[in-house]
Amino acid sequence: MRQPLSNRMPGIVASCVRIVQQALAPACLLCGGAAAGALLCAGCDEDLPRLAHEHCDTCALPITAGARCGACLAHPPHYDHVCAPFVYAFPVDALVQGLKYRDMLAIAPLLGEAIAASLDERPDVLIPMPLAQLRLRERGFNQAQEIARHVARATGIALQPHACRKVRDTAPQAALPWNERAKNMRKAFVCDADVTGVHVAVIDDVMTTGATLNELARNLKQAGAVRVTGLIAARTLPGSFKKQGLDV
Ligand SMILES: [Zn+2]
Ligand SMILES: [Zn+2]
User: Fewer CB within 10 Å, N- or C-terminus of the chain?
Assistant: First the structure.
């Protein structure tokens, strides 16, 4: 005989709670599987392309011997060190582009926490790579600042979002051959903060040629910074510069 509704209530409530929980628990962004409250499921997280252990201490490109690559030894850049958890390859490229071009702000904590977990030195302050005013108005947010907020939250390092400004609306780096990108970035930034004696970490989503980071690092060193580290979500490896329209 069927039980009265009042006796069946606990079971019905539990079922409803389960259904609501399943509806609210976000699925893995990449495969749609169960993600246990995280943005990615354990399998997809494990498969993300991570930077090789052996890489140049300055620019983070893979090397087979020594501490620095030939390019950094021959022409040391203004930045001192780059720390990047991921290689700019599938599916990290899709995640980065989702954040930047499709307003998928939920991706920012994933990239920010990955940077925080890969930190190999502790800077004094975090400065997000500035966006030009026009680009900021078009996009509505600075993806580097969104990532930086989560690095700051995970590490407790102070975030200075307005320490530097981009004062020249440069041509999109993605539209230029990589050997013209340094010229394009010249005099693009101004640093308003006094960073005398400070170890600054610049946060950005992607680093390709390093021209943008190098130009900002030049300004930061002029403003007194003793060390500039790039904390980059994804490093582009040689060979993929030309085939991907990258923005750094
Ligand atoms: Zn997945
Ligand atoms: Zn290097």
Answer: N
